[in-house]
Write a structure and sequence with these properties.
Elements: E1 3-11, E2 15-17, E3 22-24, E4 29-30, E5 35-38, E6 41-42, E7 60-64, H1 66-74, E8 91-94, E9 106-109, E10 112-119, H2 125-130, H3 135-142, E11 147-153, E12 155-157, E13 162-167, H4 175-183, H5 189-196, H6 203-215, H7 222-226
Parallel strand pairs: 7-8
Antiparallel strand pairs: 1-4, 1-8, 1-13, 2-3, 5-6, 5-12, 7-11, 9-10, 9-13, 10-11
Helix pairs in contact: 5-6
C-alpha cells in the first residue's frame, strides 16, 4: 500500500511580495483541525495570480517533507526560511516524493478523493520569496517541485491524516520521468505523444506537449523562471 502522512495543512492570504509588492499568496501558514477541501482547493486559501495558479487542475499543492532538509543543505544561509509553507504548499507530506507519484494517481486524502494532475512548474515568484535570483531554476533542476491535485470528491483534511493510493492508471509515468521529459528530453516526440494521452493529465500540460509536437520547438522558459 502506498501511503503518506499529512504533516501540515496550510493556507495563505494574498500579500505584497518583493520590492514591487506583487500580489501573492505564496506564504502559507498551518491550519489547526479539519479543513474543508473542494474543487477549487482548501477553504481559506487564496492565489495572487488565478490565471496561472489554482483552479480545478491545481487545487492543492503537495510538497514532500524530506525536501526541506535538502534545501537547507544546498542553501544554508536561507535555512531558516526553507520550512513548511515556504514554497506555497498546502499539504506537507511525509513518506512520499516525486519518485513515488504518477500522473493520474488517485488518493484518499482525509475524507476527500483527489487525483494527481501535474508536478509544479516553478515560477519567478520563488526568486522573490527567498531572495535568491535563480531559485525557480534551482527548483526545476532539482526536481523538488511537489505536485498538484484536483479534487474529485470534496471532504475534509487535517494534520495527521493519511494520503492513501486507490488507483494508478499510468504506472510508467512517475513525476521524475515527467520532469525528465519536460526539462531534459524535451523534444522526444514518441514520449510527448504518449504523454498527451495520459488519463488525469492537466489541460495545461496536455496543451504544452501538443504545442511541442506541432512546432518541433521548445517553449521559452525565461518569462516563467526569471519574470
Amino acid at each position: 500500500m502506498i501511503t503518506g502522512r499529512i504533516v501540515a495543512v496550510q493556507t495563505g492570504a494574498i500579500r505584497p511580495l518583493g520590492p514591487k509588492g506583487v500580489p501573492s499568496a505564496i506564504v502559507k501558514t498551518p491550519v489547526a483541525g479539519p479543513v474543508s477541501i473542494g474543487a477549487m482547493g482548501l477553504a481559506g486559501d487564496a492565489q495572487g495570480d488565478p490565471a496561472r495558479h489554482g483552479g480545478v487542475d491545481k487545487a492543492v499543492h503537495v510538497y514532500p517533507m524530506a525536501h526541506y532538509a535538502s534545501w537547507a543543505r544546498d542553501l544554508p544561509e536561507q535555512a531558516d526560511r526553507l520550512t513548511p509553507g515556504a514554497f506555497g504548499e498546502n499539504i506537507v507530506l511525509d513518506g512520499l516524493s516525486e519518485a513515488d507519484i504518477c500522473i493520474g494517481d488517485r488518493f484518499d486524502l482525509g475524507t476527500a478523493r483527489v487525483e494527481v494532475s501535474q508536478a509544479r512548474q516553478p515560477c519567478w515568484k520563488l526568486n522573490l520569496r527567498f531572495g535568491v535570483p535563480d531559485m525557480a531554476r534551482r527548483v526545476q533542476v532539482s526536481g523538488r517541485t511537489g505536485w498538484y491535485l484536483r479534487v474529485l470528491v470534496p471532504g475534509h483534511v487535517a494534520e495527521g491524516d493519511q494520503l492513501v493510493l486507490t488507483a494508478r492508471p499510468n504506472p510508467d509515468w512517475d513525476l521524475e520521468r515527467v520532469q525528465r521529459l519536460l526539462y531534459r528530453d524535451a523534444l522526444d516526440r514518441a514520449a510527448l505523444a504518449e504523454f498527451t494521452d495520459l488519463a488525469g493529465l492537466s489541460a495545461s500540460w496536455r496543451a504544452l506537449a501538443l504545442r511541442r509536437l506541432e512546432s518541433g520547438a521548445l517553449e521559452d522558459w525565461e518569462p516563467r523562471l526569471d519574470g
